[in-house]
């Protein structure tokens, strides 16, 4: 056990998760990374997320590190009984199946808390209880109906965000709820059910635009067409067709911007005297800035802006982040085992949670589990002997 393991705050906590895809596994991974023992209950054929192609290929290794895997057939009465016995040992149960699914197996909060009143139950859904809760939700569904796709795309061209923002954040909010419930349990001795949902998460994300309308009386424009709060806050195409994001979001930054680039005439121009004036003159100012900046390379602008302390960013593709010097210097990526597919057994680097505890990143203590890797160990922990486990396996209650 290393020093980081000794300091993990959730060590000794047992979590049983009935999850798949991204939202539920993210909730479990937050708790796992902070030290909890997280047991992933998979169907006997394994979590289908293990074998997704395309944009789903990275789901399983990304969101299932630091977990154990047990294969249980919930359709089998004996399998469902094993799942209930496992949950009886848990501090937290998490699930992200359709509403009503867990009731069939006696794995819902009401059933489990009747015999385990200290249980904290995280229910991760598409919608919180209400008129929409019968609908099937996906990240893209709620982005479309929750205003995010409208804000991300150009006018008339709604576009989903470039990652599973609602799934990931919905899982994180579920974990935040669990952490709050753990504190309250320490006071009252009782658990509770936590609910988190994709749609409500999405509405939270666009809440700033809702209030923008409430305050200004003007509907928010999609981000590519918005009236920026800052005059210089955009992507510029520069020499050799390279692109770079540059910004100057205060009057002091504008003065520095003009000084370091040799734009003394723009600094002195009364039309650009303060930020709001520059915003009102963007139609004139931006084409002029684009013309002047296109003689610089992206590397030259990077050096100038970094030295001056001005905001800038290269335009980076996800695969290029493996070579990012900051991530590599600070331990932001960690090796994980690929458990399935053509590269099973190989390793790849995965992003860690973006915070430190006691000055250290939360790392990978246990590799993403192979399918059913811990079935025997966990059943033995419930008091079953080898013969009983084999009988359950022969009956296809476990695998």
From TrEMBL:
Origin superkingdom: Bacteria
InterPro entries to which the protein is assigned, alphabetical: CoA-transferase_III_domain (IPR050483), CoA-Trfase_fam_III (IPR003673), CoA-Trfase_III_dom3_sf (IPR044855), CoA-Trfase_III_dom_1_sf (IPR023606)
Molecular function (Gene Ontology), one example: CoA-transferase activity
Pfam families linked to this entry: CoA_transf_3
Keyword Transferase listed: yes
Keywords from the named record: Transferase
Name the UniProt record assigns to this protein: CoA transferase
Protein's organism: Limnohabitans radicicola
Highest classification ranks of the organism: Bacteria, Pseudomonadati, Pseudomonadota, Betaproteobacteria, Burkholderiales
């Amino acid at each position: 056990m290393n020093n980081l393991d000794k300091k993990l705050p959730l060590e000794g906590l047992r979590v049983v998760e009935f999850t798949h895809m991204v939202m539920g596994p993210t909730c479990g991974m937050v708790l796992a990374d902070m030290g909890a023992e997280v047991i992933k209950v998979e169907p006997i054929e394994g979590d289908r997320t293990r074998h997704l192609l395309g944009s789903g290929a990275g789901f399983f290794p990304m969101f299932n590190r630091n977990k154990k895997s047990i294969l249980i057939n919930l359709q089998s009465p004996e399998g469902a009984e094993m799942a209930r016995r496992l949950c009886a040992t848990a501090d937290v149960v998490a699930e992200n199946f359709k509403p009503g699914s867990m009731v069939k197996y006696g794995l819902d909060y009401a059933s489990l808390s009747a015999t385990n009143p200290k249980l904290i139950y995280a229910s991760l859904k598409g919608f919180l209880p209400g008129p929409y809760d019968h609908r099937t939700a996906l990240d893209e569904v709620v982005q479309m109906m929750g205003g995010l796709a409208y804000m991300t795309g150009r006018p008339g061209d709604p576009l989903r965000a470039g990652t599973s923002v609602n799934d990931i954040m919905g899982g994180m909010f579920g974990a935040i709820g669990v952490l709050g419930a753990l504190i309250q349990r320490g006071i009252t001795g009782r658990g509770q059910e936590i609910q988190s949902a994709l749609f409500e998460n999405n509405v939270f994300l666009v809440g700033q635009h809702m209030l923008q309308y409430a305050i200004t009386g003007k509907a928010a424009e999609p981000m590519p067409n918005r009236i920026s709060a800052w005059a210089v806050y955009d992507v510029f195409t520069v020499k050799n067709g390279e692109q770079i994001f540059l910004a100057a979001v205060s009057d002091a930054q504008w003065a520095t911007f003009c000084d370091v680039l040799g734009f003394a005439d723009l600094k002195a121009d009364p039309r650009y005297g303060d930020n709001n004036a520059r915003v009102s003159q963007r139609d004139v100012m931006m084409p002029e800035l684009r013309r002047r900046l296109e003689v610089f390379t992206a590397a030259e602008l990077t050096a100038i802006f970094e030295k001056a302390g001005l905001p800038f960013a290269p335009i980076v593709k996800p695969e290029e982040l493996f070579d990012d010097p900051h991530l590599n210097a600070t331990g932001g990526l960690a090796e994980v085992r690929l458990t399935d597919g053509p590269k099973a057994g190989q390793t790849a680097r995965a992003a860690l949670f973006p915070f430190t505890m006691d000055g250290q990143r939360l790392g990978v203590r246990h590799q993403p589990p192979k399918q059913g890797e811990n079935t025997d160990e966990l059943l033995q922990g419930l008091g079953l002997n080898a013969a009983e486990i084999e009988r359950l396996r022969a009956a296809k209650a476990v695998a």
